[in-house]
Amino acid sequence: EPDICPDSGVKRSSAKFVSSGLRKIKKAAPIETKSKCNLNVCVRPWIRINGTLNRRVLDKFLSSVLGHIMVVPLGSLKMVQDRFTPAFQPHHTRELVEILAEINCIKMMAVSNSHKSTLFSKPTQVSLVPATGLESEEAILLEPDSMAVSRLACFIGDTAYRKDIYSTDSDKS
């Protein structure tokens, strides 16, 4: 027969765990409304809750996205976003692609037509122009640079990570 608490109907070992948690909550200090402040949280997988950059995670994500872009050159941004969904939200993937473009690992190109084509018009001249960022995801093509891996390696550097990926700031390592 399990030892059951008559009040809650829960096993005693579980009831002790729950009641110890309640004691901790009761001992917590009351919240002063004068000293509280609003906190803006930037939710990205490579940003910790306290707002610091988790550089190891950022480096891994950048190398993953760059690896996929190098496997499928001149693929659209939409295709890269679809590849990394549901691991990343599409706007997170776009931000990683923009970081790669900022460090000159890739070029963001847009497809430009000389004029709108119709059934009776002359063929349009299609050209690639630098993307402004305002185009749709399907129209932005990602072209890897020949020195992309070297540039990403220079960006990452020879950083010796002091913390594990999943460590918190309270962990001493």
From TrEMBL:
Sections of the chain in a coiled coil: none
GO MF annotation, one: DNA binding
Entry's Gene Ontology BP terms: 5S class rRNA transcription by RNA polymerase III; transcription initiation at RNA polymerase III promoter
GO cellular component: transcription factor TFIIIC complex
Protein known as: Uncharacterized protein
